[in-house]
Amino acid sequence: MKLITNNERTAIEFEIQAHENIKQAQVLLYEGLNFDIKEIKRDFSFGVMFSHLKKSNIWSTNYYDKLYVNTAECLKKYNDAISLQKIVDFGKGDEVGSYSYNEFIQRKSDDKPFIGTSDIVNWEVDLYPDYYISDNDLVDIKQNIKVNDVIFTKDGKIGCVGLITDADNVVLSSGIEILRVNYLAKDKGITPEYLFIALSIPEIGRYAAIRRTVVASTIPHLREERLKDIEIPIIDTKVMKEITKLVKEAFMLKKQRKELLKENEQIFEKYF
Q1: Is the model's pLDDT at 138 over the cut of 80?
Q2: In the prediction, which pLDDT does 109 show?
Q3: Predicted local distance difference test score (pLDDT) of residue 264
Q4: Start-to-end CA span in the chain (Å)
Q5: What is the Cα–Cα distance from 165 to 148, expressed in whole angstroms?
Q6: What is the reported pTM?
Q7: Sequence-ordered strand ranges (E) for the chain
Q8: Nearest Cα to 90, choosing from 182, 170, 161?
């Protein structure tokens, strides 16, 4: 009981410190943008030229909402900015079908957690999601997920972002996009950790995603070709390195937290 209690306390401390690091990294990014992004306000009325509608081919008021438009324009005006299409290799999750789902109680020890769009919590994949998938149902599923991949939701609950650690042996659903920084990103000093923080800022990641989201029947959806247009600001190199350091420490703590919780689970399983 003492070991389990100590592990739980330490896990909570790790999570609190990880959150503090991420929040501090977000503050550094806000301060490094060269303008006060919080000063941009929403106009409650606006007009759109038909030629603009025709050119963009996005028939959604969100795309032309002045809050989102002005924020995107200021990001480019006061900083260098580059689209995800140029700095990221894209991948995506799979829909394995509800017939393959095993609930938490039914799962076997070698089943993999199935991560849906609602299972990205506190900037990470949930350690105990609702569903698990057996190896037999993964024969045709070859997901190329690597440590430090940034993940971003594009269906339903859009704009949730997370970072993969080596404690995350998971299967991602089709509503999740995998973003892996390429060589051009690294040349510009954009690390997975910096990309994660940029997309975690509502005014950068979520605003841009909302602008490009359309509703298919009743479910909001962000198509990959629209996601690629989201632009990431490039700020002072020194600040980007500070952000990277803070986020690396945060996700190391998150990884250690998961390992402690898994250790407690194993203790219970052996005991009973």
Answers
A1: no
A2: 77
A3: 93
A4: 13
A5: 6
A6: 0.91
A7: 80-83, 88-92, 102-103, 112-115, 120-121, 124-125, 131-133, 150-153, 161-163, 171-172, 176-181, 214-216, 219-221, 231-234
A8: 182
